[in-house]
């Protein structure tokens, strides 16, 4: 994906518990310690959703299934290393979490916490992101084929079989996680 000034991508890590409730993983930002979701700049030779999945791995060690359709977007003001402020727009992709690695590139630099959906929405500073979190179920349903119902949404430990979603594998072998996933699918 081509990098556009001020445009970022993010993964919204979630899991569904057996009782049907959603949990959202939030992480702390390295600079301010506020609660955010994994996000970063677009990456060459990766789609926006693939870049979002890579950020989730690098910042929180998460593996899962990334949606190729965005849930929405939110804005925030980023303080650059030179002290200048930059308005950013972040496009958010759903990440159904399957697991967390024991080690990842930014391990020890951030806290990672699972929150109940309503608590997660209350923790983030950006109102548009809070709304995406609060309405996650409806947004996920909107991205599914019309024949799907809420009861068919994936649960923790189950395989929901969603369309337009790819497995994301962390860098175990030193290979690109997207290429490694494609290799695994061929096995």
Order of helices and strands: EEEEHEEEEHHHEH
- Oligomeric category: single chain
Indicate how many domains the architecture comprises: 1
The percentage helix is 10-25%
Structural class: alpha+beta
Describe the main β-sheet briefly.
9 strands, mixed
Task: Give the tally of β-strands.
Answer: 9
CATH classification, class level: Alpha Beta
Mean pLDDT figure: 80
Corresponding CATH superfamily: Nucleoside Triphosphate Pyrophosphohydrolase
How far is the first residue's CA from the last residue's CA? 28 Å
Q: How large is the share of residues in beta strands?
A: 25-35%
Net shape: globular
Per CATH, the architecture is Alpha-Beta Complex
Question: Count the helices. How many?
Answer: 5
Uncertain stretches of 5 or more adjacent residues: 144-187
Tell me the Rg in angstroms: 16 Å
CATH topology: Nucleoside Triphosphate Pyrophosphohydrolase
């Amino acid at each position: 994906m081509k990098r556009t000034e001020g445009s970022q991508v993010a993964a919204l890590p979630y899991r569904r518990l057996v009782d049907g409730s959603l949990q959202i993983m939030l992480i702390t930002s390295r600079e301010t310690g506020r609660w955010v979701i994994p996000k970063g700049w677009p990456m060459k030779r990766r789609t926006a959703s693939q870049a979002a999945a890579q950020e989730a791995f690098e910042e929180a060690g998460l593996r899962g299934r990334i949606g190729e359709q965005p849930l929405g977007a939110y804005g925030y003001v980023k303080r650059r290393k030179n002290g200048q402020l930059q308005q950013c727009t972040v496009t958010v992709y759903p990440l159904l979490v399957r697991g967390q690695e024991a080690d990842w590139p930014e391990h020890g630099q951030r806290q990672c916490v699972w929150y109940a959906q309503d608590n997660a929405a209350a923790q983030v500073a950006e109102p548009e992101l809070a709304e995406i979190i609060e309405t996650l179920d409806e947004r996920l349903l909107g991205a599914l084929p019309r024949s799907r119902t809420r009861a068919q949404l994936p649960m923790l430990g189950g395989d929901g079989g969603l369309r337009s979603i790819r497995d994301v594998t962390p860098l175990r072998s030193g290979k690109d996680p997207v290429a490694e996933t494609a290799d695994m699918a061929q096995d």
